[in-house]
Each structure stands twice: as structure tokens, then as C-alpha cells.
Design a protein that fits this description.
A hairpin with a 6-residue loop joins strand 5 and strand 6. The strands form 3 sheets. The protein has a 7-stranded antiparallel sheet with strand order 8-7-13-12-11-10-9, with no helix packed on it. The protein has a domain of 148 residues. The chain is α+β, with helices and mostly antiparallel strands. It is rod-shaped. The protein is built from 4 helices and 13 strands. Bound molecules: zinc ion (2 copies). The site of one zinc ion has 7 residues, from loops.
Amino acid sequence: MKRTLVLLLTLTLLFSTLAVLSSCNKHECTFATEWSHDDTNHWRACVGEDCVEISEKASHTWNDGEITTKATQEADGVKTYTCSVCSHTKTESVSFAGMTKDEWNLIIHPNNFKNYTLDMKMLIVTPSIDAQFNSSLIFKFTEDATYMYAQSAGQTSEDTYESSSMDLAADIVAMFDYDNFTYDAEAKLYRAKGKISIPWDDSEPTDATIRFENGKLVEMKYSYTTKDEDSGLDMDFDNTVKFTDYGTTVIPNL
Ligand SMILES: [Zn+2]
Ligand SMILES: [Zn+2]
């Protein structure tokens, strides 16, 4: 019993001595006002020379993070989190999740249709070529109507029309409503998810798509079949609207 007590006292004395020697090098620690940190923790270090004492060590308190680089179809974006205590930051990659409705409506607006071409591929399906055409059907291309009359069933005509010769912008914009499209990440374009209607016709386009590149609107495509009421001709249209005026079609904040 007595021997055990002596051993305990000796050990206690030994540890106390070690603790004093290893702690503050015989000075009272003063901790820095600036935080030190690694990727996991932050702390305040003693300013004393050769002193390794630290205080207030804790893991970071990350905020909700903010998008510091916006993701596009072509490249992931960056989200940056900041520790609310020490201001240390960490980043994570964010993939493109599609545009907001506000962004979409800013870009796909008639005012932005300043420099585009419409590549129109038309196929006449029904063989009743002698019938009289209603020129108003042909998107106001009255000067080109003669060309269309000359087509025979099964023939395909292809033409490119400059934007300056047409007044289609508002109609096309109405067709490409945000709520009717969904982002196809694999194809890197937006695709019509349900029925959409062409404002100047009763037809419903199939496979309407819209494509952005580096945050800029570059292409809208839509295909549809329509019947001319007067002539009874069935026609397949395969239209591509290409944009070259990138400055007016860029996703905001890029
Ligand atoms: Zn110290
Ligand atoms: Zn921190």
C-alpha cells in the first residue's frame, strides 16, 4: 500500500514537470489576432518565438457558397465556400444545370434577332402541283413564291434567307417558350419536351431544339408538316435559324 502511494506521487510529479516544460517555454502565451488554418481547421497560434501553442482550434464554418464561375454547356463552373470565422475558402466544381427563365427570356427576345439567317429546307409531299398556292402561307416570302410553285412532289428545295428580308423574329420567339424546353446534357442543347405550336400555323413542330455555345445563342431548329388550305399540298419544313450576332445573344453574367 505504501509503496503504491509513493509510486503514484512520483508519477504525478514527473508528469507535472513535463507539462510545465513543454507548454509555454516559461512565457505567458499571446495568441495572434490573425487565424492560421489548414484545409480542415483554423486556430490562433502563439506569437512567441519557437512556441507551438495554439488556441481556439476548430473546424471551419462554411457558408452556403456562391457561384464564382458560371457553368456553361462546354465547361463546369466553380462554387466557392468561405469559412465565416477565418475567411479560408474552398471550391467545388458545378456542372451546367440549365438557364433560368430570366436568362432565357433576355436572350431569346425579338430585339436580339438582328443578325441571323433562316435555312429553310422544304419537301412537297402531296402530288397536286397544279393547284393554286396561297402566297401568304409562305412566311411572307412573296417574292420567292414563284420558286416554290415550280416544285414537284417529292422534290426538295433548300434556301437561305437573310433576316433583313423577313419578319419572323416575334413568331419564332413565341414558339421557343422557356417552359416548353428541357436541357439535354448529352446533346448539349435544349429540346422541346411536349407539344409546341407555330404561331402562324396550326402545325406542331417535331424535334424543335435550341443550342448555345460558350453561353451564346447560335442555333434554333424546328421541323413541321403543314397543308396548304387552297392547294391541298402537304409540305414538310426543316428549318434552321443561325445566329452570328453573338454580342446580343450572350447569357448574362458570363
Ligand atoms: Zn507561447
Ligand atoms: Zn475557418
